[in-house]
Design a protein that fits this description.
It comes from Microbacterium rhizomatis. Pfam families: PP_kinase, PP_kinase_C, PP_kinase_C_1, PP_kinase_N. By secondary structure, this protein is of the alpha/beta class. The protein has 3 domains: 216 residues, Endonuclease, Chain A, CATH 3.30.870.10; 296 residues, polyphosphate kinase like (2-Layer Sandwich), CATH 3.30.1840.10; 183 residues, Endonuclease Chain A (Endonuclease, Chain A), CATH 3.30.870.10. It has 19 helices and 27 strands. Strands 14, 18, 19, 20, 21, 23, 24, 25, 26 and 27 form a 10-stranded mixed β-sheet that branches. Strands 10, 11, 12, 13, 15, 16, 17 and 22 form an 8-stranded mixed β-sheet that branches. Strands 2-4-3-7-8-9 form a 6-stranded mixed β-sheet, sandwiched between helices. Helix 12 links the parallel strand 11 and strand 12. Helix 3 packs antiparallel against helix 4.
């Protein structure tokens, strides 16, 4: 057997070929069944979201929102992950699977688990959330539950607002089966011609531009809603006069909406992407959701016409498409939500005088600034930084990556203002950001019209890093002001996504970013950076060397530990390196939000690995990579997850955090997250996630997000005073 000594002969200083050879030899001794299936792990993540909807300790409107999030997540899972697996199987491409089973078996397992979760999701709405909403004065009714007077008022609404936009489509020899768009809600209607006695089929699309939940006018104190499809279903006679309505049922189709572009074979990426977006609308069906009372005649017709298999049919009780519950966000019942939280301005960025305008450049020159969103404001930090740069006459250039941003983004406007004032502005817009492609094309063209230099990154790679660089002339010298973040430059999602951002005037970071932007916009190829780890060239190798350094320190009897906070942990090389470190005695904490393929607790392999997950009010989105480094901690933050796509097919960047106060803040956060006294989910060796939210004394465990919300501003103020 190959032992630890294979990797001990100065591996940290070995060349890449020696490193790869030694790693491969060692990994051959690890057990074959050492990975959890990534797709089943993703479904387990969505189950954790569902458990929040089932949690009676949470405000009821937040629980309804978690039901909607679960539904939206699952839609994207089918449109991308399941669709991608099916496409590869059909086209004969290799299907990545790290669990030693055939793709068909994986799809079968996905189907079984997805069916189970969708039924649990439907039951959570029917048995848990809807009744408690009703008790709280928010009633989602069915037609047979409302009064005659309410039906009459809704009938008037139907005639004036709904009927004119409906488009019933008959299916007969003169009318072929219509195209069913992805994620649309539809009514399948069987009718009989009163004159001929012939039975016919019709499809009616529920208008997606209209509110899904129609408020029911009534005289009581409660707020009542009726699903739009229920209103339409009970007025079908107006749409088919002279016909007998035999039956009607709701159904919904999910299509393959993944975008695949052969960039090496196209001369114009934007034109190719726009063509692919049009094709996306007509992707093959991959899931059919129907109400559980649909008759066999109608279902058989849908299965036949849509060319879908029985395995891809989901019979569900109650409402389909619970994304509609997002609309309850408009209900003005603050007592049924999380208590409001207004992000504070980071202490370093607060104005020196009351009602004065802060000078962010002066604050960053004084010391590095680490901001933690949404606990600290994005608007008064990142946004204010770019807006100040846009109007500052001493700023010569701004360079920035844009992966996802909001439709009315002040970030984009700041770049436009800067360009119009004569500054050099470079915007690297990633037009291939999934499901934001069309919006990003619009913004790219708007930026170009304003004089911004817009580039689209490197062929074959997505630019996912979150970087901004401002070049400012100060006393005849050019100074670099850098921002490296873990989240998108998106003011809207910054209110609900947990992320970190580092502002610094460190000259080496500025040089690293300058070279990286040159690589992204031109033809320069940089393989080494001083303060950054950059994918796809050397981020993976850099992390593997850091992990192996901890392994060797442990073997030498020195303290060693690794802590990783990521959205996903899938990459086999990284996982195997962590297994090797665990075998050497390195204590490893992994804080993961979503997918996790690593198996903790395997005898002789991963007893030293602990995996926790935290979900709640905010979406944990930051990535942190912390190494003990023999008492001289190395901690990085950045945009990369431990997935093949992030390490091999994206431009990602991690920056090393060096300020002692920032290192302590990140370490304290990890201590609290991994504590047994903090509410979280714990991963077992067989892939099961167990929620720990109540302590031995029967009291709720610490909510990390609530604690951080209350203590980040206080801790920052105390540090500033010291």
């Amino acid at each position: 057997m190959i032992g630890h000594d294979v990797l001990d002969a100065g591996l940290g200083d070995a060349d890449d070929d020696d490193f790869d050879e030694a790693v491969e030899a060692f990994d051959s001794q690890l057990p074959e069944n050492r990975y959890l299936d990534r797709e089943i792990s993703w479904l387990a993540f969505n189950q954790r979201v569902l458990e929040l909807a089932e949690d009676e300790s949470l405000p009821i409107l937040e629980r309804a929102n978690f039901l909607a999030i679960f539904a939206s997540n699952l839609d994207e899972f089918f449109m991308v992950r399941v669709a991608g697996l099916k496409r590869r199987i059909v086209t004969g491409l290799a299907v990545p699977t790290n669990v030693g089973r055939s793709p068909q078996d994986v799809l079968s397992d996905i189907s079984a688990e997805a069916h189970r979760l969708q039924l649990r999701h439907a039951d959570a709405w029917k048995s848990l959330v809807r009744p408690q909403l009703h008790d709280s004065g928010i009633e989602v009714m069915r037609w047979d539950e409302i009064t005659d007077a309410e039906r009459e008022r809704l009938g008037d609404y139907f005639q004036s607002q709904v009927f004119p936009v409906l488009m019933p489509l008959a299916v007969d020899p003169a009318h072929p089966f219509p195209y069913i768009s992805g994620l649309s809600l539809n009514l399948a209607i069987r009718i009989r011609n009163a004159k001929t006695g012939r039975q016919e089929f019709a499809r009616l699309k529920v208008p997606p531009m209209m509110p899904r939940l129609i408020e029911v006018p009534h005289d009581g104190d409660s707020t009542r809603f009726l699903p739009l499809e229920d209103l339409i279903s009970n007025h079908l006679g107006d749409l088919f006069p002279g016909m007998e309505i035999l039956d009607h049922h709701t159904f919904r189709l999910t299509r393959n909406e993944d975008v695949v572009i052969e960039e090496d074979e196209t001369e114009n990426l934007i034109q190719a992407l726009e063509a692919e977006l049009l094709r996306r609308r007509f992707g093959p069906p991959i899931r059919l959701e129907v109400t559980d009372d649909m008759d066999d005649v109608t279902l058989d017709l849908l299965i036949s016409e849509l060319s879908i298999t029985e395995q891809e049919v989901y019979r569900l009780p109650g409402l389909l498409d619970l994304r509609g519950l997002f609309e309850l966000g408009s209900v003005d019942r603050p007592e049924l939500r999380y208590p409001p939280h207004v992000p504070t301005t980071a202490v370093a960025f607060q104005p020196a005088e009351q009602n004065g305008r802060p000078d962010l450049f002066a604050a960053i020159r004084k010391a590095d600034v680490l901001v933690h969103h949404p606990y600290e404001s994005f608007a008064t930090s990142v946004q204010a930084f770019l807006e100040q740069a846009a109007r500052d006459p001493h700023v010569l250039a701004i360079k920035q990556t844009l992966y996802r941003t909001s439709g009315d983004s002040p970030i984009v406007q700041a770049l436009i203002d800067a360009a119009e004032s004569g500054k050099q502005v470079l915007a690297l817009v990633e037009v291939k950001a999934r499901f934001d492609e069309a919006a990003n094309i619009v913004w790219a063209r708007k930026l170009e019209k304003a004089g911004v230099h817009v580039v689209y990154g490197l062929v074959g790679l997505k630019t996912h890093c979150k970087l901004a660089l401002v070049i400012r002339e100060e006393d005849g010298v050019l100074r670099h002001y850098s921002h490296i973040g873990t989240g998108n430059y998106n003011p809207k999602t910054s209110r609900i996504y947990e992320d970190f951002g580092l502002f610094t005037t460190d000259g080496q970071v500025g040089k690293d970013l300058t070279r990286l932007f040159n690589e992204l916009s031109g033809y320069a190829i940089e393989k080494k950076f001083k303060r950054l780890l950059v994918a796809p060239l050397h981020l993976r190798k850099g992390l593997l060397r850091q992990i192996d350094k901890e392994r060797r320190n442990a073997l030498d009897g020195r303290p060693a530990s690794i802590r990783l906070k990521v959205n996903s942990m899938v990459d086999e090389q990284i996982i195997d390196a962590l297994y090797r470190a665990s075998q050497a005695g390195v204590r490893i904490d992994i804080w993961v939000r979503g997918i996790c393929s690593i198996k903790p607790g395997m005898e002789g392999v991963s007893e030293n690995i602990t995996v926790r997950s935290i979900l709640g009010r905010y979406l944990e989105h930051s990535r942190i990579f912390a190494f003990h480094n023999d008492g001289d901690p190395e901690i990085y933050i950045g945009s990369a997850d431990m997935m093949h796509r992030n390490l091999d097919r994206r431009v990602e960047a991690l920056v090393r955090v060096v300020a002692p106060a920032h290192l302590k803040e990140l370490t304290d956060l990890f201590d609290r997250a991994m504590s047994d006294e903090t509410s979280s989910w714990w991963l077992g060796s067989e892939g099961e996630w167990t929620r720990h939210s109540i302590g031995a004394d029967g009291k709720p465990l610490l909510d990390l997000q609530d604690y951080t919300m209350a203590n980040v501003p206080r801790r920052r103020r105390a540090r500033a005073v010291r």
